[in-house]
Structure formats: structure tokens, C-alpha cells
Amino acid sequence: MMSTTSMHGMWSSRLAFIFAATGSAVGLGNIWRFPYTAGESGGGAFVLIYLLCVAAIGVPIMIAEVMLGRRGRQSPINTMRALAVRQGAHPAWQLLGWMGILAGLLILSFYSVIAGWTLAYVFRAGSGQFAGIDGPGSEAIFSALTADPERLLAWHSIFMALVVMIVARGVASGLELAARVLMPALFVLLVIMVIYAAQAGDFGAGLGYLFTPDFDALSAHAGDALLNAMGQAFFSLSLGMGAIMIYGSYLSSQASIGTNVAIIAGIDTLVALLAGLAIFPIVFANGLEPSEGPSLIFLTLPVAFGQMPFGALFGVLFFLLLAFAAWTSAISLLEPVVAYLVENKGFSRVRASLLAGVAVWLLGIACLLSLNEWSGFTLFEMGILDLFDYLTANVLLPLGGILIAVFAGWILDEEVSRTELGASNGAWFYPLWRGLIRWVAPLCVILVFLNAIGLI
Ligand code: TRP
Fold first, then answer.
1. What is the pLDDT of residues 205-234, one digit of tens each?
2. CA–centroid distance, residue 414 to ligand 1 (Å)
3. What are the phi and psi torsion angles at 379 (to 5°)?
4. Is residue 112 in contact with ligand 1, taking CB distance under 6 Å?
5. Residue of minimum CA distance from atom 10 in ligand 1
6. Domains in the chain, ordered, with CATH?
7. C-alpha angle 101-272-420 in degrees, rounded to nearest 5
8. Planar angle of CA 133, 139, 141, nearest 5 degrees
9. CA pair distance 400, 392, nearest whole angstrom
């Protein structure tokens, strides 16, 4: 096999790729978004559909993204154009890269605001404010934060500065340590929280809520629950916008894509389920509402930290590590556009990161104002932050996913994907992947879309 490299640097090892891609996947999506979306969509049935989406749509598309990235070795825009031209297909396939850049900027703008909440909560936890609080007390702390645009702006700005710093240095060198040390620490802490929730919370109710599919509850939440589950799978796995593609572009030609993807998707899913197990028992034991929305973990966890032994310490650690997890994800949202600016506009990495960072920072201001000053402004009954969240996860990412699946399954030569995936003629996984990527993934996304707009 031909061995190629990227001008933006390469991962130092296969493990470095796994850490970076897991760092991208595991973030607010697992710990903040998964529980609140599950809670809004009625619980168990949502979780079941989510898991099916991860397996049947997410994993094959992630394999495709890594493969296309490694094949192209450039920003998603240039990778798609080059691969399309090489196949004799229309260069308009680069549109996928452009959509990805748009999605990345929009996601990062609200992601950074939520990461800012997380940073703010490090200090709330450390100052002992959570000691002994109940649901309403937790609610008051949260509302005070979101009602204050200056505070939100300060934290959003700090977070964006941290992101730009790493992206400016080049992700292949900046990311590894954070992912190697801090992510396992977050994992351990999450397990501690689950153990605590099992003792002090209503674990039976939490478990039942997450794992007993209640399809009546699902249909009560209309077509959107299906769409939410699929959108959550894309969001959580960082799929559909080129983030995983560009990480794949720094992966050595020898590494096995299928194995790596299985590990990454497995860890990502496990973390989301653990987050659910840590949160819902507390929700039910304290009279909170599962359908609270984006505030869910910020209302729930302080109650737990306020009651548990060493709660202030655990609280500080938890929110700090969550902020780190958000950071390693945010970096992957900015990388595709930065790589593009470097490749096509001749920018230095520093200049490209700053420019993209400022654009996101400005969009983020609109998001944080939608929580207070601009709360009267809504579109489809959503404020700007919720709208960006919905539009990206439920529309842009799945659309990107269809394009990736169709390109990898129908346009790209079978020879190429066979070689990239290391599939000799008898390999069982290759036909499985090919069936999923050609038929199952694109058709499922289309069916879910049709269902959401009420056509089926
Ligand atoms: N997957 C990350 C999380 O769960 C967020 C994220 C990072 C992302 N890169 C992405 C989402 C690309 C969609 C696309 O927090």
C-alpha cells in the first residue's frame, strides 16, 4: 500500500489517533447532551434507538470518514474534491467539506457557551455553594448564571482562547497529553458518580428509565424522538462534518481503521450511558424533571455534590475534567476550517486559528445572549442556542452523513475501500460494512428525516 502523510503533521502512533479521536467524540455530547436529550425524548425507547443508530449508521460512517480522510490527507474540502476528481466524479463533492465547516462553526459557538457553564461550575463547586442544596436551590444558582451575559461572555471567551491556543500549535502535537491523562481520569470520576447515584439516588428508577423501552412515551414525543436519537448519535461520535475525517488524515497508512473505530465508538457510548446512570437516579430521588432540557446536568449534579462526602472536591474535579473533555472535542470542531485556510489561503496556523476562533466567538455571543437579553427572539420556538444545536445535530450532520456514506459506498472504487480497510477477500467485516454504508446508513437517515417532517 502507498504510504502518504499530511502537511499538517501526523499522529505519533496509533494510540495517539485513538486518544485524539476519542477526545473528539467524548465531550459535552455524552455528559451534557445525551442525558438531556434522552430526558426530553422519554428515556428507554430513545436510548435503544440511539444505540441502534450508533451501530448501524454511526460506526460505518465513522469508518468511512477515517478512510476518506486518510486517503485524501487534506482538509475535508480538498480531500473530497481530490477524491471525487480522482474517481471521475463531480468536484461538487467538496460541498460536503463546506457544509462541515458551517456545521463546525455553528456547533462550536454554542458548545463553547456550555463549556463556559462547566468552567463556571468548577468555581461554584469549589466555593461550597452546593453544600446541602435541593432542587430549587440548584435552579437558583443556574438561573443566576444564565441570566448574566457578562459572566457567560467571560467564560465563553476563556474557553475559546484555550481552544485557539491548541489549534494554533497544531493538533498532532497539542492534544495527546490531555487525552491520555485527563480522559481516563474523567472516566474514573464518572464511575464514582454512578456508584454514588446507585447508593444515594433512586437507582431502580434511573435504570428503568434508561433501559426499559417505553414506546408509548416515545410516540408521545412525536417524530422528533427518532430524529433526536439519530442526531445524538452523529453529534456524540463527532460525525458528519469532517472532524473525524481530518483526524483520519493524520493517521498512518498502516493502522487498522475498523478496530480503531470500534474502540472509539465503544468508549463514547459507554461514557454516555455512564453519564445517564449517574444523573437519572439523582433526578428521580430529588423530584427533578428528566425533561428539564439543556440545564439538566447543571441542576442535577450540584444536588449530588452537595450531599456526598467530599462533594466539593469531587465537584471541582468533575466539572474541571468535563471542561477538558469539552476542550479536546472543541479542537476537532475548529481543525477542518483551519486546515482549509492553511491549505488554500496560505495562512499560517496561528492566523487561521485566530480568524476562525473570532468568527466562532462572535456567533457564540449570539448564543449566550439568547439565554437572557434576546430570549424573546425565537425561530421554530427555539432561541438561537437551541436552534444551532437542533439544526446542526439533527439536520446538517445527518445530511453530511448521507453524503459521506454515498461517496464511500457508491462513488469510491471498491478496490480502494477494500485496500484501506485491509480487507482481504475472505474478510467477513468488509461485506458487512459495505452493505451498511451503501444501503442501511443512507436509507435510515432518509427515513428518519421523512418521519420527522411527517411524511411517514
Ligand atoms: N462529539 C463531541 C461531544 O460529544 C462534540 C463534537 C466534536 C462534535 N467534534 C464534533 C460533534 C464534530 C459533531 C461533529 O461532545
1. 999 999 999 888 777 665 588 999 999 999
2. 29
3. -135, 135
4. no
5. 238
6. 14-452 (1.20.1740)
7. 55
8. 75
9. 10
Task: Give the pLDDT confidence of 11-40 residue by residue, as tens digits.
Answer: 888 888 999 999 999 999 999 999 999 999
Q: Which three cell numbers stand for residue 347?
A: 495562512
Three-state DSSP class for residue 427: coil
Sign of the Cα pseudo-torsion (337, 343, 344, 349, in order): positive
What is the C-alpha to C-alpha distance for residues 268 and 248, in angstroms, rounded to an integer?
A: 17
Structural contact between residues 146 and 372, judged by C-beta atoms closer than 8 angstroms: yes
pLDDT at 223: 57
Within 13 Å of residue 122, how many CA atoms lie on the same side as its CB?
14
380: left (phi over 0), alpha (psi -120 to 50) or beta: left
DSSP string for residues in 65-115: HHHHHHHH-S-HHHHHHHHHHHTT--GGGGHHHHHHHHHHHHHHHHHHHHH
Taking only the tens place, the pLDDT of each residue in 344-361 is 999 999 999 999 999 999
Q: State the CB neighbour count (10 A cutoff) for residue 333.
A: 29
Length of the chain: 456
Grouping H, G, I as helix, E, B as strand and the rest as coil, residue 346 is coil
Answer yes or no: is pLDDT of 3 > 80: no
Ligand 1: residue whose CA is nearest its atom 2: 25
In whole angstroms, how far apart are CA 415 and each of 31, 62, 87, 255?
39, 19, 12, 18
Distance 283 CA to ligand 1 centre (A): 25
Q: 136: burial class by Cβ within 10 Å (0-12, 13-18, 19+)?
A: exposed
Which residues, including other chains, have CB under 8 Å from residue 257's CB and lie 6 or more apart?
A: 63, 66, 67, 70, 248, 251, 420, 421, 422
Which residue's alpha carbon is at the smallest distance from atom 6 of ligand 1?
A: 238
Residue 298 burial class via C-beta count within 10 angstroms: exposed 0-12, middle 13-18, buried 19 and up? buried
| Tens-place pLDDT, residues 359-418 | 999 999 999 999 999 999 999 999 999 999 999 999 999 999 999 999 999 999 999 999
- Paired with 379 in beta bridges are 382
Could you give the CA distance from residue 41 to residue 390 in angstroms, rounded to a whole number? Answer: 14
Average pLDDT, the chain: 94
Per-residue cell: 61: 460512517
Give the three-state DSSP class for 130.
coil
Q: What is the mean pLDDT of residues 104-117?
A: 98
329 lines ligand 1 (CB under 6 A): yes
Q: Tell me the C-alpha distance between 404 and 68, whole Å.
A: 9
User: CA distances (Å), 219 to each of 72, 145, 278, in order?
Assistant: 43, 34, 26
